[in-house]
């Protein structure tokens, strides 16, 4: 099935026009009436001014800790969809590593550094860099879509509302702690924590029960840390057996469940912390922002009989969701945040001492920069072939190209041609969503599988 994602169009004055079908874009390019403006997302620019009535579009956002769904929706259908992969946890790990290296420096004899006292004050609305990176990634793509398409509104899923206080301001005590949806919230928590998978057999397409890992008849509690997700068959087979008894022949699974059930839901905490900050940042764009709850998104998705993924969730955010929405044939653009390099001048060894020479301040060599997506056609030597991927530049002119199968080293810059300039992201395409893939939850996981970039983007047309 062909990709139905629309192609963005700019006129000769770089003003956004109505996105067009890929077939129309192919005809414009072949007749020399337009040229390629950008590869990801694919955009063409017209060579003459055209006057048409723009159809106002709405950006819909389903924020997440690791992935954020993006959808550009008209009054009746989806125009463009993407899944944005964040690097918040990578930033957290980098900050942790830097902190450890700085602490190790205190015990070594190094040069004197003047103490600093007046640069430690934080703003009232301060958030850690690992969280703010998610907010800035979303804002960056909202601004980019506003430049490429006639966008007039934004819809954001606001994950959590205090509905009990809204309905009954005087609620308190255990009544507030549990509330009307107490059991439902616990179940949803476990579904997210264990990724809709039975912890015992790994089934994903069966009805699930909440199982007491340590049975109550043998001293187990009702704490959430003692609850796991189990299919009906495994739950009945386990009955009131202890975990060691039931999993006596599968000790590796027992250890895995023990680690998993004690882990906090860090993803939910990250989303809950950034939800209001993201809302304020989106309002600063000047566009009206519609807020919708997660329950409304789920209701819209089930009402429209749409499978669950990040970008389909985004298309169902808010009251503005159309009465009909066809998602068949759409192929989401997978956007992965990679950063724009590191400020670290030298790389340390395991003891914290430098193991490399200081890096050069120059970032561009022979017209290429690390992060560019290039196509290299090698015509002679031991590495004859065509390679497409993200490039890492070297001063010598021999670059490394990261492809689907691995990293190819020592490719001369003379064979390379830039497909897309480095912008802090890398791109690929997800699986085309068909009607058959909407019928099973097990098959939904295939939607997030990546495709390697193959050849020029013009091959899409």
Written overview of the protein:
The protein starts with 6 loop residues before the first strand and ends in a 17-residue tail after the last helix. Strand 5 and strand 6 form a beta hairpin. The strands form five sheets. The protein has a seven-stranded mixed β-sheet. It contains 13 helices and 20 strands. Among the domains are: about 90 residues, DNA Binding (I), subunit A, CATH 1.10.30; about 60 residues, SH3 type barrels, CATH 2.30.30. With about 450 residues, the protein is an alpha+beta fold. The longest helix has 20 residues. Helix content is about 30%, strand content about 25%. Helix 2 runs antiparallel to helix 3.
Question: Secondary structure elements and their pairing?
Answer:
Layout: E1 7-10, E2 16-20, H1 22-30, E3 34-38, E4 43-46, E5 57-62, E6 67-73, E7 78-85, H2 88-105, H3 129-148, E8 151-158, H4 163-167, H5 173-178, H6 182-193, E9 208-212, E10 227-231, H7 232-238, H8 243-246, H9 251-261, H10 266-283, E11 289-293, H11 294-303, H12 310-315, E12 333-337, E13 364-365, E14 368-369, E15 373-378, E16 385-392, E17 398-402, E18 407-412, E19 416-420, E20 425-429, H13 441-444
Parallel strand pairs: 1-4, 5-8, 7-12, 8-11
Antiparallel strand pairs: 1-2, 3-4, 5-6, 6-7, 9-10, 12-20, 13-14, 15-16, 15-19, 16-17, 17-18
């Amino acid at each position: 099935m062909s990709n139905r994602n629309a192609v963005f169009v700019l006129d000769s004055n770089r003003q956004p026009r109505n996105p067009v079908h890929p077939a129309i874009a192919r005809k414009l390019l072949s007749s020399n009436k337009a040229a390629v403006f950008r590869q990801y997302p694919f955009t063409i620019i017209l060579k003459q001014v055209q006057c048409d009535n723009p159809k106002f579009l709405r950006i819909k956002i389903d924020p997440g800790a690791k992935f954020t769904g993006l959808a550009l929706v008209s009054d009746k259908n989806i125009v463009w969809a993407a899944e944005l992969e964040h690097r918040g946890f990578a930033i957290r790990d980098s900050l942790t590593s830097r902190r450890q290296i700085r602490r190790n420096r205190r015990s070594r004899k190094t040069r004197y550094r003047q103490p600093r006292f007046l640069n430690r004050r934080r703003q009232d609305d301060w958030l850690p860099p690992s969280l703010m990176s998610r907010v800035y990634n979303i804002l960056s793509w909202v601004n980019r879509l506003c430049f490429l398409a006639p966008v007039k509104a934004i819809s954001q899923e606001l994950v959590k509302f205090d509905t009990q206080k809204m309905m009954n301001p005087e609620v308190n005590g255990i009544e507030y702690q549990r509330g009307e949806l107490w059991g439902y919230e616990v179940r949803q928590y476990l579904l997210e924590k264990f990724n809709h998978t039975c912890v015992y057999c790994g089934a994903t397409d069966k009805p699930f029960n909440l199982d007491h890992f340590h049975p109550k008849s043998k001293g187990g509690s009702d704490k959430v840390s003692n609850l796991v997700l189990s299919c009906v068959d495994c739950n009945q087979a386990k009955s009131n057996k202890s975990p060691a008894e039931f999993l006596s022949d599968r000790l590796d699974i027992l250890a895995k469940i023990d680690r998993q059930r004690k882990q906090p839901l860090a993803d939910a905490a990250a989303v809950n912390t950034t939800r209001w900050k993201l809302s304020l940042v989106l309002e600063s764009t000047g566009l009206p922002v519609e807020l919708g709850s997660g329950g409304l998104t789920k209701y819209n998705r089930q009402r429209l009989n749409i499978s669950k993924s990040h970008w389909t969730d985004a298309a169902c955010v808010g009251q503005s969701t159309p009465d009909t929405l066809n998602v068949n044939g759409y192929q989401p653009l997978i956007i992965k945040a990679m950063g724009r390099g590191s400020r670290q001048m030298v790389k340390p060894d395991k003891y914290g001492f430098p193991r490399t020479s200081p890096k050069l301040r120059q970032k561009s060599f022979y017209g290429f920069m690390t992060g560019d997506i290039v196509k290299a056609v090698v015509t002679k030597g031991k590495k004859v072939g065509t390679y497409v991927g993200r490039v890492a530049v070297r001063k010598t002119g021999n670059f490394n190209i990261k492809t689907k199968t691995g990293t190819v080293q020592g490719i001369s810059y003379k064979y390379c041609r830039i497909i897309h300039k480095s912008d802090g992201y890398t791109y690929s395409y997800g699986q085309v969503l068909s009607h058959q893939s909407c019928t099973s939850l097990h098959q939904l996981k295939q939607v997030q599988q990546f495709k390697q970039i193959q050849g020029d983007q013009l091959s899409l047309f």
